[in-house]
Design brief:
The chain has a domain at 4-126. The chain is built from 4 helices and 7 strands. It has helices at residues 119-123, 127-136, 151-156, 170-179; strands at 4-10, 15-21, 37-39, 49-57, 71-76, 91-96, 104-113. It has a 5-stranded mixed beta sheet. Strands 5-6 form a two-stranded antiparallel sheet. The termini are far apart.
């Protein structure tokens, strides 16, 4: 049976939450298409209504609406599964069909109608867990940019003294004596 990783986005807050759907929880998704709505009760979100916006299969190929079948190579000008290569340039890319099947691993969902609780509370995510995750990631420190010297500062800077002449090593002294 298929296991799905659900990425549920909340457009009001701009945050995305993840949830696993295994075995019996995953059954209702099989056969659904991009653009369909489903009731949140199916995955434990009472009062919520969710819209399927896309997903990807086990190889990472994205789902694209309007494509029949499991996986196809299509010529794309833009949109899902294609990052622009320039104006008017088409490319042949592999994408998945718009129907959810056993090969799909990730399903992207968007909240269409909110329920009584906040999404984070309904999924069982606590504020403490959020803070721990935020603290676990070390933030990179800001690097100071090197200061540029002005023309006046360059003039005032002392010039480097010329390098001292090399002292002859004992081997070189012997060579010069032999030549004489």
């Amino acid at each position: 049976m298929a296991d799905f990783k659900l990425c549920i986005s909340d457009p009001k807050t701009g945050k995305t939450y993840q949830k696993e759907a295994k075995d019996n929880d995953a059954r209702p998704f099989i056969g659904m298409k991009i653009g369909e709505t489903l009731k949140g009760e199916l995955i434990g979100l009472a009062g919520y209504e969710l819209l399927i916006t896309g997903g990807s299969d086990y190889c990472g190929f994205p789902m694209r609406s309007g494509i029949l079948g499991v996986r196809k190579k299509v010529t794309l000008l833009g949109g899902v599964g294609f990052s622009g290569a320039g104006r008017g340039i088409k490319k042949r890319k592999t994408v998945c069909g718009h129907k959810i099947n056993d090969d799909i691993v990730q399903i992207n969902l968007k909240v269409a109608k909110e329920g009584g609780k906040k999404l984070a509370d309904a999924l069982g995510i606590k504020e403490e867990e959020k803070k721990e995750k935020a603290e676990a990631k070390p933030k990179p420190e800001a690097k100071e940019a090197p200061k540029k010297e002005s023309k006046e500062e360059k003039k005032e800077a002392p010039k480097k003294e010329p390098k001292e002449e090399k002292k002859e090593t004992p081997k070189e002294e012997k060579k010069t004596k032999k030549k004489e």
